[in-house]
Design brief:
The strands form 3 sheets. Strands 1, 2, 3, 4, 5, 7, 8, 9, 10 and 11 form a 10-stranded mixed beta sheet that branches. This protein has a two-stranded antiparallel sheet with strand order 6-12. A two-stranded antiparallel sheet has the order 13-14. It has a single domain, classed as Spore Coat Polysaccharide Biosynthesis Protein SpsA, Chain A (Alpha-Beta Complex). It is globular and about 45 Å long. The longest helix has 17 residues. By secondary structure, the chain is an alpha/beta fold.
Length: 275
């Protein structure tokens, strides 16, 4: 599933995939890695799994155990020194690859990003870059909402370490970390989505549409370990998705200000992050 060097072709830099998780989400690990192997069998990068105290054993995956679960950001801060790479491709355990990955396209983006001496890039353009750089990527300007979005994000390791703050949830990191990131240039996004993912679990509950998709993929889904979203919760989710779609249509420099007008802006259930 991966090699030991993880070199980004023709750059002299290395990259590793880090699946950010915790023991409470260990029921997702078998599904995550079944789909990962199925849809990215030629992944050229080493893969690490962050856990607390559980020892996970999946072929080709290095388990990084960080001890008791303090917070999402504490877990990451403890795990990063154990990941031997210049860049971190951050995966979230409830975001599942659901279509074949075009490895050449991923590598082209990463080469472009490294040659720009980038600090961060997201391969899921939500929102899209506000200043095009070339046909592959564009800049995400300081002041932009969700500048540190975690979904399919690639980080220069030391920048991620510097921007993380102990005690934060991923939602807080995506909001407050974006503000902290304004001190740095070199933040980019692709123009188009490079990988297709399924947001399977939201705020600890199975998303109803994701259950149907996973059953169609025949990954051995077993319900019962965690609850399923109610229909009312699903409707609330759709409302927040519409709200975010609307925000992303505003000028980039206005999004943070407008978002702060919404109640509950710091607990956005559409984020891949969790408390």
């Amino acid at each position: 599933m991966s090699n030991l060097s993880g070199e980004i072709q023709d750059t002299g830099k290395t990259l590793a995939i880090l699946v950010a998780s915790c023991d409470r989400y260990s029921d997702l690990w078998p599904i995550f890695f079944r789909l990962f192997r199925r849809f990215w069998p030629d992944c050229p990068f080493p893969v690490y799994l962050l856990s607390n105290n559980l020892e996970a054993q999946f072929p080709g995956v290095v388990n990084v155990r960080v001890g008791d679960d303090i917070s999402w950001s504490d877990n990451l801060l403890a795990a990063l020194p154990g990941v031997n790479a210049d860049y971190i491709f951050l995966f979230i355990d409830d975001l599942l690859i659901c279509e074949r990955v075009n490895t050449a396209a991923v590598c082209d983006v990463l080469k472009d990003f490294v040659r720009q001496n980038g600090n961060y890039i997201r391969l899921n353009p939500a929102p899209r870059p506000d200043r095009p750089l070339d046909h592959l990527i564009g800049s995400v300007s300081a002041g932009t909402l969700y500048r540190t979005a975690t979904v399919l994000s690639v980080w220069k390791k030391e920048i991620l370490f510097d921007l993380l703050k102990k005690g934060e949830t991923p939602w807080e990191f995506e909001i407050d970390g974006s503000i902290r990131s304004d001190a740095y240039s070199g933040f980019f996004s692709t123009h188009t989505r490079i990988l297709s993912i399924l947001n399977a679990v939201i705020k600890g509950k199975w998303e109803r549409g994701a259950i149907r998709r996973l059953r169609s993929l025949a990954v051995g889904l077993e319900l019962g370990v965690r609850p399923v979203m109610t229909r009312t919760e699903k409707l609330r989710l759709e409302f927040h998705r519409i709200r975010n779609w609307t925000l992303n249509r505003l000028p980039p420099e206005s999004r943070r200000r407008v978002k702060n007008l919404f109640s509950g802006a710091r607990r956005n259930p559409v984020s891949s992050a969790r408390a």
